[in-house]
Amino acid sequence: MNDTLTSRCATISTVREYNRIEDPGHSWLEVPIKDVREAGVEDQITPYSYIKDGKMYLEEDSDLDTFYNAMVKKGITIKMNRVRIEDSDEFFV
Predict the structure, then answer these.
(1) Residue 26 in domain
(2) What are the pLDDT tens digits along the chain (93 aa)?
(3) Are the C-beta atoms of residues 30 and 57 closer than 8 Å to each other?
(4) In this structure, is residue 83 part of a structural domain?
(5) Whole-angstrom Cα distance, residue 12 to residue 41?
(6) Domain count, the chain
(7) Are the C-beta atoms of residues 25 and 89 closer than 8 Å to each other?
(8) Which segments within 1-93 are labelled E, that is strand?
(9) Cβ(55)–Cβ(45) under 8 Å?
């Protein structure tokens, strides 16, 4: 094998795991603010997403896709864990 460590690592995709918070009618991707900045999309996030405790909750209709697509372009694979809640009003208070 003549490949270098750099060439072997270049083909390895980084995986990030996030929670997708779902109520009966909508969902949000829970992402640390630093990851949104890393994706370079902080100025593209709409007012329909929430910020709480150092995390952004990216709404499913637009902001989730904006973040997801930016991360994929950086070679990062996103894994989403579904977390069901009953009432988003109580969750985001």
Answers:
(1) yes
(2) 455 555 455 545 699 999 999 999 999 999 999 999 999 999 999 999 999 999 999 999 999 999 999 999 999 999 999 999 998 888 887
(3) yes
(4) yes
(5) 24
(6) 1
(7) no
(8) 14-22, 27-32, 50-52, 55-59, 76-84
(9) no
